[in-house]
């Protein structure tokens, strides 16, 4: 029984994963229910690679009745909202060099690193003005405490992939605090407002410091306005699907997974830390499917180079949600 359980968990970690899990896109499909749980997974297995951002997994719980959480407190300046959703999440992210089969130091490559965060997030939706505010506060650790080596090695043993050989040179332990703020605003009326949504994000802390501007395009069989979604004016007995296309441009000022923790020097490391490329972009495309209390998402992500000698990185991300 224990071995079967471990195999099941291993396969789960292999095929699932997240990327700042687009709370605003998932939160509004509650089917009139109070609570929601979402399991997210990201992995580059689809593209037969095992490099850079190689995997991640997260689980989150949202509730429309939660009050007085830190994330809500930081959004108290928003006095009018039709939907107020708050939740908590746990996530792990794992990064490796381009090749995991090289046991020695690799010049000009990404260092081994991993981190975990325990977070509190909140989403406020103002349907009248077609604006969505969301934020997330996370605390955690980077380095051996994040158990990146154990997680990756465990999955690779199950699926018969090469065992990573360089985790003894990973970035050292560091305390992380992370704050992420996002706003979406539809500036036009009619069909354009429902399908074309610009957004802006800022992220600061000891994990990363960056700003982002982007736009997403939604095309589906039952796109609804925010007011209709807020009032649950859609038939949950029918399958709702939508294609999502997104693009963003980022200004990146600091990334602990490349440069090490702010307050430790990672002395004696053979694997060099890297300076980040300050201008980066990301393209995303995928599908959302909603039915009754269930939701499914699969996205393909294309990231530009994040340090000088990197290459463009591709990975898949998926999540399952259930409302109750």
Mean pLDDT: 81
Helix-strand makeup class: alpha+beta
The CATH class, by name, is: Mainly Beta
Order of helices and strands: HHEEHEEEHEHEEHEHEEE
Count the beta strands: 12
The CATH architecture name reads: Beta Barrel
Distance between the termini: 29 Å
Write out the strand line-up for the largest beta sheet, numbering strands in chain order: 1-12-11-10-9-8-7-6-5-4-3-2
Q: Portion of residues in helices?
A: 10-25%
Strand content: over 45%
CATH topology-level fold name = Lipocalin
If you compute it from the alpha carbons, what radius of gyration comes out, rounded to the nearest whole angstrom?
20 Å
Q: Largest sheet, if any?
A: 12 strands, antiparallel
- CATH superfamily, by name, is Outer membrane protein
Number of helices: 7
Gross geometry = globular
């Amino acid at each position: 029984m224990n071995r079967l359980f471990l195999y099941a968990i291993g396969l789960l970690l292999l095929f699932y994963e997240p990327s700042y899990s687009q709370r605003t896109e998932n939160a509004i499909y509650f089917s009139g229910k109070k609570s929601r749980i979402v399991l997210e997974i990201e992995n580059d297995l689809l593209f037969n690679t095992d490099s850079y951002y190689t995997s991640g997994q997260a689980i989150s719980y949202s509730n429309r009745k939660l009050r007085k959480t830190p994330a809500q407190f930081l959004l108290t300046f928003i006095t009018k909202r039709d939907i107020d959703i708050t939740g908590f999440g746990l996530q792990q992210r794992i990064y490796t060099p381009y090749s995991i089969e090289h046991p020695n130091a690799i010049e000009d490559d990404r260092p081994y690193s991993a981190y975990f965060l325990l977070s509190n997030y909140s989403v406020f939706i103002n349907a009248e003005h077609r604006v969505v505010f969301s934020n997330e506060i996370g605390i955690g650790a980077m380095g051996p405490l994040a158990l990146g080596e154990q997680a990756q090695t465990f999955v690779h043993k199950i699926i018969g992939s090469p065992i990573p050989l360089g985790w003894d040179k990973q970035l050292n332990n560091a305390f992380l605090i992370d704050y992420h703020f996002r706003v979406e605003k539809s500036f036009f009326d009619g069909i354009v407002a429902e399908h074309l949504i610009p957004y802006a994000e800022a992220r600061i802390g000891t994990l990363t410091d960056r700003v982002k501007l982007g736009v997403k395009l939604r095309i589906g069989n039952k796109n609804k306005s925010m007011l209709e979604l807020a009032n649950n004016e859609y038939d949950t007995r029918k399958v709702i699907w939508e294609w999502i296309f997104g693009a963003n441009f980022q200004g990146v000022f600091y990334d602990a997974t490349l440069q090490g923790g702010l307050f430790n020097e990672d002395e004696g490391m053979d694997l060099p830390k890297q300076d980040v490329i300050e201008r980066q972009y990301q393209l995303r495309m995928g599908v959302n499917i909603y039915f009754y209390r269930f939701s499914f998402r699969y996205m393909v992500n294309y990231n530009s180079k994040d340090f000088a000698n990197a290459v463009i990185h591709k990975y898949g991300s998926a999540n399952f949600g259930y409302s109750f």
